[in-house]
Amino acid sequence: MKHKALELDRDRKKALVDGLIAYIDDEWEQEIGLLKAELLLDFLTDNMGKELYNRGVTDSRKFVMKRMEDMELDMDQIKL
Description:
Order of helices and strands: HH
Number of domains: 1
Shape: elongated
Strand content: under 5%
C-alpha cells in the first residue's frame, strides 16, 4: 500500500509556521519571513514526518499489544 506524504491542513500549517518564526526569532535572534518558514516546515515534514509517524505507530502497537496481554490474563482469571 502506497502512503501519501504528510499533509497538514491550512490552519495547522499556519500555526506551525508562526511557531517556527517565533522560535527562530526568540532562540536564534534571527528574523525569517513567511516563505522561509514554510520551506523549513516543508523540509522538516518531508524529512522527519515519516520517521515520527512510524515511531508513533510502533509505540501504539506496543501499547495495544500490552493491553491485549493484560486482557487475556484478566479473561483467564474469570474462567469458571
